[in-house]
UniProtKB/TrEMBL annotation:
Domain (GP-PDE): residue spans on this chain: 227-481
Gene Ontology molecular-function annotations: glycerophosphodiester phosphodiesterase activity
Annotated keywords: Glycoprotein, Hydrolase, Membrane, Transmembrane, Transmembrane helix
Protein name: Glycerophosphoinositol inositolphosphodiesterase GDPD2
SUPFAM superfamilies, alphabetized: PLC-like phosphodiesterases (SSF51695)
GO biological process terms on file: lipid metabolic process
Topology class, membrane: Multi-pass membrane protein
Family note: Belongs to the glycerophosphoryl diester phosphodiesterase family.
Length: 515
């Protein structure tokens, strides 16, 4: 069989060397009469499936970056080791995708050059290991982080139209090596099978836009107002979380609400702290090495004031943005201490922003005294009560009676036949669909979703009409003046038709030209 035009012998030899790990010239291969066997075809199919498998995992890896800080915190709680595991994830995923993609390109080029697909045993082992690693990653995701499957479904509302175009383009390019293989193979049954599978896949892709639903397919004049920003523990990418510096940085980002977590010290002083143990966000190991595993509520206020609540931020670099801090900001970070709720309320009052908080830990035996101490500080602070958003469910009726002006925020959806209508809800972004968000908006229920860090996710929720989002990346979302993309339905329909028609013509041309 002659080499196709443009496929020189040195190129074919090089391809064989890389794919088969043997330096045998194309001419010698032909003298030996080697051909691509059914086993070789099976390995090529396995290679193609592994490539798709790793590509899907790459998509998931990019999507879960929005929530990866939670994973870093989880690992720290288990091992007391801080590392930005997102870098490890992306590097490992990129290596697996690149390896399988290079092998696939080599195989397709060999097919176009009319050379046998003799995959070396080492590549076979590495492909099997790649498939096992990715399968283990998906299994772990399903067991420990199942909500990310819902995140992936939401992401399709942002990426669906573009994935459709990309997949159609990729499958269209695949028509060339497929046509070459079909015209060269002698098995009629294999020819029919490959053509039927390919045609079925392409028909499904051509009709896929019928099932793509995105809130961002709308007219410009239908776009809801931009959601308000709620600073998650302040501005944790710019300053240590739950500190006064973080609150002020959040104010600079135009947030309307400072979201935080409140605990009560052993001597009855409410203070800001998220973790039950102060190990992650303070230098408690240096100051009180024998008390590092104790609950934060066991410390009195005098002891808590001795802790450095900022230096960890520079040492562990929980976000890449830490590297870009100015010298002045770095100095200010080292001066941060654990703030009391009284100090936070005063800062919120002066900055004219609201404050929303959880009261932790909910299962504490003295939780009612925590509620009483917190309410007392709020009522004595002089902050307008409408600027206080109350999240804790425990003793909520007592709070309503003692401070009726405080806004009650619920961490659940509304119930049927609700006695008292909900005015504010605070939920994970995975828990509400676009349709539910629109319905709540029509019913004048304020919906805040957390934690939203990536522009693509913020865009989807903006188009859906959410009232506000809790974010770590207020400095990023502040700069967004418009969703990442917005397409009128007529424009999207035209793109769909053009892409599908162009693909069909390209496939037809490939099969007619190579015949």
């Amino acid at each position: 069989m002659a080499d196709p035009p443009g496929c020189c012998r040195p190129c074919a030899t090089c391809l064989l060397c890389l794919y088969s790990c043997q330096w045998i010239t194309a001419k010698k291969e032909k003298r030996k009469g080697l051909r691509t066997t059914k086993c070789d075809c099976s390995w090529f199919l396995f290679l193609f499936c592994v490539f798709l498998f790793t590509l899907v995992w790459l998509y998931f890896a990019i999507i879960i970056l929005n929530d990866f800080h939670n994973f870093n915190e989880f690992i720290f709680k288990q091992s007391k080791l801080w590392l930005d595991w997102s870098l490890v994830l992306l590097i490992a995923t990129a290596v697996l995708v690149t390896y399988s993609a290079v092998l696939l390109v080599l195989a397709l080029c060999l097919q176009l050059c009319g050379q046998p697909l003799k995959l070396h045993w080492l590549h076979k082992i590495l492909l099997i290991l790649t498939a096992l690693v990715v399968a283990a990653a998906f299994t772990g995701l399903g067991i420990k982080w199942a909500e990310e499957w819902r995140s992936a479904r939401i992401s399709l509302q942002a990426t669906g139209p573009f994935l459709h175009v990309g997949i159609v383009g990729g499958m269209t390019l695949l028509a060339w090596p497929l046509a070459t293989f079909i015209y060269r193979t002698r098995s009629t049954g294999l020819k029919v099978f490959l053509l039927l599978v390919y045609c079925a896949v392409m028909i499904a892709l051509y009709l896929a836009p019928l099932g793509i639903a995105s809130p961002c397919i709308m007219e410009e004049n239908q776009l809801p107002p931009k959601p308000a920003l709620v600073g998650h523990r302040g501005a944790p990418m710019l300053a240590p979380e739950n500190t006064l510096m973080s609150l002020h940085k959040a104010v600079d980002c135009d947030v309307q609400v400072f979201e935080t977590d409140v605990m009560v010290s052993a001597d009855g002083v409410p203070f800001l702290m998220h973790d039950e143990e102060p190990t992650r966000t303070t230098n408690v190991q240096a100051m009180f090495p024998k008390r590092t595993t104790l609950n934060s509520t066991t410390f009195n206020w005098t002891d808590l004031q001795q802790l450095d609540a900022g230096s960890w931020f520079l040492e562990r670099r929980p976000f890449p943005t830490v590297q870009s801090l100015s010298a002045g900001d770095r100095y200010q970070v080292t001066k941060q201490r654990i703030p009391s709720l009284e100090q936070a309320l005063e800062a919120a009052k002066q900055s004219n922003i609201s404050i929303m908080f959880d009261l932790r830990p909910e299962n504490h035996s003295d939780y009612q005294s925590f509620v009483n101490a917190t309410l007392e500080v709020i009522l004595q602070s002089g902050i307008p009560l409408q600027q206080v958003l109350w999240l804790p469910d425990g003793f909520r009726e007592q709070v309503k009676q003692q401070a009726p002006g405080i806004q009650q925020v619920y961490g659940r959806k509304r119930l049927q036949n609700e006695k008292e209508p909900l005015l504010h809800v605070n939920l994970p972004y995975q828990d509400m669909s676009s349709e539910e968000i629109r319905q709540y908006r029509q019913d004048n229920i304020s919906v805040n979703l957390y934690v939203v860090n990536q522009p693509w996710l913020f865009s989807v929720l903006w188009c859906s009409g959410v009232s506000s989002v809790t974010t770590n990346a207020c400095q990023v979302l502040k700069e967004m003046k418009h969703p990442i993309w917005l397409l009128p339905s007529s424009t999207y329909l035209m793109i769909w038709i053009v892409v599908d028609c162009a693909s069909f013509l390209a496939i037809l041309w490939a099969f007619l030209l190579l015949k």
